[in-house]
Amino acid sequence: MSKRQANVDDDLVQGTKTVLGAEARRHQPVETNGMGEFEDAWEDEIEEESDVEEDDTMDQENGEGMEVDEPTEEEQEKELRMYLPGQPLEEGEVLEADQSVYVMLHNLDVRLPFLSFDVLNDTLGDERKNFPATAYVAAGTSVPGVRDNEVVVMKLSNLHKTQQEDEDDEEDDPQALDEDPVLEHRSIPHNGCVNRIRVMPQTGKHLASTWSESGKVYIYDLDPYVASLDVPGTQLPKQYKPLAIHNHGREEGYAMDWSSLDAGKLLTGDNAGLIYHSTITPQGVVTTDSAAFREHKSSVEDLQWSPNERTVFASCSADQTVKIWDTRTKKRSAVGIHASNSDVNVITWNKKAGYLLASGHDDGTFSVWDLRTFKSGGQPSPVASFKWHNAPITSIEWHPTEESVLAVSGADDQLSMWDLSVEPDTEEEGRLSSNGVEVPPQLLFVHQGQNDIKELHWHKQIPGCVLSTSNSGFNIFKTISV
């Protein structure tokens, strides 16, 4: 079972910077208000150019100018080459992100790592494609052994386009990077580590649920905290006390999901294999069914409501199974399959093609299932399965509007994007790199540079925008591939 706990050391607490994508660490931070800091993607380059110009001027004044041999194209190709995950770096080599493949790439060095986060719906509109962008996020800190953790509500604004293919791009593109991104935040005390946080998807109300290491599930009303980020002077509760669900006893958990069809419907699953169904009313009253869904033989790792059937949900477990349930029958699941020979860590239900479910496993494999082939007593085969990651899959999520696209993260410091509509060439299953690594044709993009990626989410209102959290920082980016 993958517990996905955040590791905290002195360097992380002090805010040691991480690289962006596959970029070398050479950027100065942009100061913020204490929660963390954005890295400036271009400041050092400007300073370095200024230093070179000053040195050249002094040399010319002293009559010490000298000719410099420019590197040939062949030498430049040797210096810069494509890196594929798993390849060893030679002494003196560093990874550097190719900025031309990122439309936007920003890194936030947080004061404390987030094990889990979720994207908040906002009123800025759907299908937003213009820059600078703004995103609202709810996250939870996870410092083991520390009682006072936090739920953090963040507003990330002034997120400019960072793509620069040549020196004239910034002048030609008014949306390109010209100002520093801005981070504003509000913190709410949380009792124990935040194992997972999920936000109710319906608009008009920002309710967030958290799984605590204490075994309790808390419900937070984030509305006043979100409002305070937009409206100066908004009054915040002096001593906020969240609602709590106690049915799990002292057994902690990670699995949690809100229904997208019925506001206030919440599922929670614990490490004892029990799943509880709760309802939160608009008046703030929580009711939880006394009977649990109990069939898993080990911890419940993830839960997903059906996107088109109100009473149906899926669960996955360290017992290597995926099960489909109906809330009207708690005695047994409707159907269950053996999905892997290792723990099934995460699942995601396709919002556009409701018959597709994807699962991520502890052996680094992820599989896509056609639910129409699930039958009682049978064992279906996945319609697709990929072994690209070489460590446990930690997060997986379908694109909110493109039914064939999904993103996957692993404990191998990779975040991969896939398009399953791409059909492999019958003569050549994958593309072979110069180093003999086979690259599946469905693989669109690999984002690197974060240490131990914990979770990812697509931003539903900014097409192609991905957010990811890790032990070493928080990234928000958009690639040219999606």
From TrEMBL:
<feature type="compositionally biased region" description="Acidic residues">
    <location>
        <begin position="37"/>
        <end position="74"/>
    </location>
</feature>
<dbReference type="GO" id="GO:0042254">
    <property type="term" value="P:ribosome biogenesis"/>
</dbReference>
<feature type="repeat" description="WD">
    <location>
        <begin position="293"/>
        <end position="335"/>
    </location>
</feature>
<protein>
    <recommendedName>
        <fullName>Glutamate-rich WD repeat-containing protein 1</fullName>
    </recommendedName>
</protein>
<dbReference type="InterPro" id="IPR001680">
    <property type="entry name" value="WD40_rpt"/>
</dbReference>
<feature type="domain" description="Histone-binding protein RBBP4-like N-terminal">
    <location>
        <begin position="93"/>
        <end position="160"/>
    </location>
</feature>
<dbReference type="InterPro" id="IPR015943">
    <property type="entry name" value="WD40/YVTN_repeat-like_dom_sf"/>
</dbReference>
<dbReference type="Pfam" id="PF12265">
    <property type="entry name" value="CAF1C_H4-bd"/>
</dbReference>
<dbReference type="GO" id="GO:0005730">
    <property type="term" value="C:nucleolus"/>
</dbReference>
<keyword id="KW-0853">WD repeat</keyword>
<feature type="compositionally biased region" description="Acidic residues">
    <location>
        <begin position="165"/>
        <end position="181"/>
    </location>
</feature>
<dbReference type="InterPro" id="IPR022052">
    <property type="entry name" value="Histone-bd_RBBP4-like_N"/>
</dbReference>
<dbReference type="InterPro" id="IPR036322">
    <property type="entry name" value="WD40_repeat_dom_sf"/>
</dbReference>
<feature type="region of interest" description="Disordered">
    <location>
        <begin position="160"/>
        <end position="184"/>
    </location>
</feature>
<dbReference type="InterPro" id="IPR051972">
    <property type="entry name" value="Glutamate-rich_WD_repeat"/>
</dbReference>
<keyword id="KW-0677">Repeat</keyword>
<dbReference type="InterPro" id="IPR020472">
    <property type="entry name" value="WD40_PAC1"/>
</dbReference>
<feature type="repeat" description="WD">
    <location>
        <begin position="337"/>
        <end position="373"/>
    </location>
</feature>
<feature type="repeat" description="WD">
    <location>
        <begin position="386"/>
        <end position="421"/>
    </location>
</feature>
<dbReference type="Pfam" id="PF00400">
    <property type="entry name" value="WD40"/>
</dbReference>
<feature type="region of interest" description="Disordered">
    <location>
        <begin position="1"/>
        <end position="74"/>
    </location>
</feature>
